[in-house]
Amino acid sequence: MDRRVIVVANRLPVKWDSAATRWETSPGGLVSALTPILRASEGSWVGWSGVSDEEFEPFEHEGIEQVPIHLSDDQYRAFYVGFCNGTLWPLYHDAIRPPEFHRHTWRPYVEVNRIFADRTAEVATDDDIVWVQDYQLQLVPRMLREADVGHRIGFYLHIPFPPVELFSTLPWRAQVLNGLLGSDVIAFQSRSSRSNFARAARRLAGAEGSSSRLEYQGRTIELQVSPIGIDAEAFALLGNDRATRERAAQIRADLGDPEVVVLGVDRLDYTKGIDLRIKALETLLERRPDLVGKVAFVQVAVPSREDVEQYRIIREDIERLVGRVNGSFGEVGRPPIHYLHRSLPIEELAAYYRAADVMLVTPLRDGMNLVAKEYVAIHHRPPGVLVLSEFAGAAEQFGAALLVNPYDTDGLTSMLEWATRIDAEERSRRMRRLWRSVRDHDVFWWAERCLAPLRG
Ligand code: ADQ
To answer: How far, in Å, is the centroid of ligand 1 from the Cα of 353?
Structure first.
């Protein structure tokens, strides 16, 4: 019999629909990978309910026990908007924006981590595996260990772990390291994140050992590299679906049947390099006026964290840039950039992937980047072209992509130009390798790889 798995994450895998007064499953790879595992082990999911004016009792949804955490509005703002998005997110993404260090948001971070740990301690037994997710909950492993909870404690970091020179600026660095080192296994998206963490733990917390195994306070902690994947087969099937193909053809027709469709799909976040990719497109059209009217660029940006000032600024910057490029190079009814600021249903997103000859994924820093993997799954046959930032975790697996430094506008422009005319044989050789990697390292592979050392 498998041990019970308790997942502890910032959000539950379900959303409260207040109009219909019921819980709806939130779509996504993580949820589809963990659902069968939790169901088979009769496990639970502990997470914030997403609703501040109502408290919910634990309930069952699709065979999994959901344990909602209740946070007040003030608590959530200080913890999530303040410390998670104002401090940790920029710091862990190479300080692309200056992280803010405030005691009045650090304290709620500790307090909310304590609420999660206490609630988990109430539902977990000594035989259970407790698997804590991501940067919002880095203190939880230590708090659980002190409460003597669970058979084994795992932690997975979805975002990068920064170089020690940056991490050491965090005034609460010792507490965060001590929190994480309460785990038995800590897993990272990439080798660089793992070695950054090992270095920080040795230099700032006095841990000893290698990048894969640390000794700390008389215990051994395993450090793992487990790149997250997607449900590759499901995406490939969706991409080949007749409805998807027809919709893709319709999208190309709506764009005026250009020779080349270039696509960007991101959460609207300053880490994703959307502005730099638009500048590269602008440079390309300046250099190659013959391409005006032949290349159409579609940028789909999901609204994100709009209560954070930096996100409002980046949105305005991007919209201004789009206006400038369209003003300079567009004809009436034929802008070079088509910009959609909205979330799309998965079937529609798949049709955009399918319609795109070239996919531009240019984050300045990214834990993994699932968009790159989704594009490969959907557009490996016929083969599309993936231009990928060296600074996405996915680049460690995707040597066959066209790798770029997104800060280098000239380099990115040249790569984009090449991507529009790359020959068919090279395109398919590269895509074959990318697809093999996505298919063999899917999200089910990922979940098993993370859980195996915790079962022990
Ligand atoms: P994110 O920063 O959110 O995730 P990413 O990995 O690219 O980034 O995932 C974005 C997801 O949102 C994709 O599944 C994509 O399909 C979806 N999406 C994007 N635009 C959309 C749109 N317009 N409409 C609907 N859906 C859209 C964090 C880390 C990443 C890491 C993941 C998983 O920052 O580095 O890969 O977690 O670990």
So the answer is: 14
Question: Alpha-carbon distance 54 to 72, whole Å?
Answer: 9
Beta bridge partners of 156: 133, 187
Contact 38, 64 (CB under 8 A): yes
* Ligand 1 midpoint to CA 372 (Å): 10
pLDDT at 1 over 90: no
Ligand 1 touching residue 228 (CB < 6 A) = yes
Per residue in 153-166, pLDDT (tens digit) is: 999 999 999 999 99
Contact 278/317 with Cβ under 8 angstroms? no
Q: Looking at residue 392, what DSSP letter applies?
A: B
Cβ–Cβ under 8 Å, residues 353 and 397:
no
- Ligand 1 atom 33: residue of nearest CA: 158
* Tens-digit pLDDT profile for residues 273-299: 999 999 999 999 999 999 999 999 999
Domains 5-229+444-455 and 232-440 belong to one CATH topology: yes
Helix (H, G, I), strand (E, B) or coil at 277: helix
For residue 337, what are the β-bridge partners?
297
Helix (H, G, I), strand (E, B) or coil at 94: coil
Q: In the block, which residue shows the tokens 């917390």?
A: 205
CATH code: domain 5-229+444-455 is 3.40.50.2000
Burial of 306 (0-12, 13-18, 19+ CB in 10 A): exposed
Place of tokens 């840039």: 321
Q: How far is the CA of 369 from the centre of ligand 1 (A)?
A: 6
The residue whose CA is least distant from atom 20 of ligand 1 is: 266
Q: Of all protein residues, whose CA lies closest to atom 38 belonging to ligand 1?
A: 158
Q: Answer for the pair 152, 184: CB distance below 8 angstroms, yes or no.
A: yes
**Domain coordinates in residue numbering, the chain:** 5-229+444-455, 232-440
With tokens 């802008």, the residue in question is 335
Say what the pLDDT of residue 36 is.
82
Q: Is-contact 150 186, C-beta < 8 A?
A: no
- CATH class assigned to 232-440: alpha beta
Is the preceding peptide bond at 382 cis, omega within 30 degrees of 0?
yes
Please give the pLDDT value at position 456: 78
Handedness of CA 119, 125, 131, 135 (dihedral sign): positive
pLDDT in tens, 345-386: 999 999 999 999 999 999 999 999 999 999 999 999 999 999
